[in-house]
Amino acid sequence: MNELAIELNRTLDSSVAAAFLSETGRRLYFPKGIVAQSDEAKQKARTYNATVGLATSKGQPMHLDDIMSVFKEGIFKPSDIFNYAPGGGDKALRAVWKEEMVKKNPSLEGKLVSGPLVTAGLTHGLSMLATLFFNEGDTIVLPDLFWDNYDLIFSELRACNIRTFRFFSDGGFNVSGMKDALMSLEGDTARILLNFPNNPTGYTPSRKEMEEIVKALKEVADSGKKVLVICDDAYFGLFFEEETAKESLFSYLADAHENIFAIKADAATKEDMVWGFRIGFVTYASKGFTEAHLDALTKKTLGAIRCTVSNCDRPGQTMLLRAYQSGKSVASDKERTFGEMARRYRTIKKTIATHSTQYLEAYPFNSGYFMAFDTKGRNAEELRVYLLDKYGIGTVNIMGRTLRLAYCSVEEENLEDLVNKVFQAAAEIWS
Ligand SMILES: Cc1ncc(COP(=O)(O)O)c(C=O)c1O
């Protein structure tokens, strides 16, 4: 094993993270290769800097004028658009993201968390976490309604087992089911991923449920199990009800217990409406972590970035940072989108309430982009295809027993008609 990896492992051995590092995770390190040497040269090479594979002239990257001219003159330098971004992302953007994270999650104030590392979207972040912290045959606990890509990432890419528990009980999040699933795992480690607001259900726990989730996870940790909790916060902020918990689970777990290793995987993708930019973040915390542990985890993750995408999208990071630093309407644009999503949420909720639950029953939903129907044992794929063929309506079948509506992508004035047609179609094929 590389000396640098051995050193990082030695640092992490005194932390909860050591219990989760996969064999690949243990091997990874951030090399003192071209990137590190060119970083050093940036500071010290006063005469010539012949380190980076990037064609430059007069201090700027050579480039296609047809691309540069798309931007208003004087806004960006070619280097802002065409240079490589640092492996962990633009430093200033990382700092802004962290600052915003604390503003959005006041419970994080004063807690020790790593500097968020930029990933090529949230998917890339999850994929790297799977590589770093899951061996073949490890089990990940998930609620039984989850984003289908977890299957590819954890089962197929990393050959892990998925163990599910029922998402809902008594109309709310099934906290005891979650705890039982964790406690039923053999061995002294447990891995879980929780995604709120949830895809596909559109559910976020209430404040009380969030407290219960934290309490249950602490109890599992108290039992001696080490628990890895990945918080997928893709749709963070889109909370439409008063009683819904408004902070990420991560903010409560960051200093909850020495046996809890909390990871926040989030992204500008939906939060800042930059879906195609591919900007995500990974942030680590645990009650027992020191700065040295966080530094070692950061270096391992930088190694994982280096050997997958090397570094992430530069123009996207530049533009997002500029919007945060000097944009005039970031807050109002986000507010407008939130308002529109909230209106759509209320319309769809109201319309669904006018229908019988004989064939389709909406799962509880209060946040995010989606709602989903339990098809009550009937084939959701049959309904999906029927809706598409007869009504030209696109929906998503989840696991054959759930039909998901992405109301985020349908105008408010069409939502009533959409819902009515979905119920009508269900009655047509199943009555
Ligand atoms: C729950 C969840 N996590 C992660 C992602 C991926 O986000 P990104 O586009 O940033 O990779 C999505 C996107 O659909 C999602 O629904």
Helical residues, percent: 40-55%
Count of discrete domains: 2
Number of strands: 15
CATH structural fold name of the largest domain: Aspartate Aminotransferase, domain 2
Task: Summarize this entry quickly.
The protein is of the alpha/beta class.
Describe this structure in words.
The protein is of the alpha/beta class. It has 2 domains: about 5-30 and about 85-325, Aspartate Aminotransferase, domain 2 (3-Layer(aba) Sandwich), CATH 3.40.640; about 330-430, Aspartate Aminotransferase, domain 1 (Alpha-Beta Complex), CATH 3.90.1150. It contains 17 helices and 15 strands. It has a 7-stranded mixed sheet, sandwiched between helices. Strands 12-13-15-14 form a 4-stranded antiparallel sheet, with helices on one face. Helix 7 (about 120-135) crosses helix 13. The mean pLDDT is about 95. The structure holds pyridoxal-5'-phosphate.
Keywords summarizing the entry:
single chain; 431 residues; alpha/beta; Aspartate Aminotransferase, domain 2; Aspartate Aminotransferase, domain 1; 2 domains; seven-stranded mixed beta sheet; 15 strands; 44% helix; 15% strand; globular; binds pyridoxal-5'-phosphate
Topology:
Layout: H1 3-12, H2 23-27, H3 34-44, E1 56-57, E2 60-61, H4 65-68, H5 78-82, H6 91-104, E3 117-119, H7 122-133, E4 139-143, H8 149-157, E5 161-165, E6 168-169, E7 172-173, H9 175-183, E8 189-195, H10 207-222, E9 226-232, H11 249-253, E10 260-267, H12 268-271, E11 280-285, H13 291-306, H14 314-326, H15 330-353, E12 361-362, E13 370-374, H16 380-391, E14 396-398, E15 402-406, H17 412-430
Parallel strand pairs: 4-5, 4-8, 8-9, 9-10
Antiparallel strand pairs: 1-2, 3-11, 6-7, 10-11, 12-13, 13-15, 14-15
Bound molecules: pyridoxal-5'-phosphate.
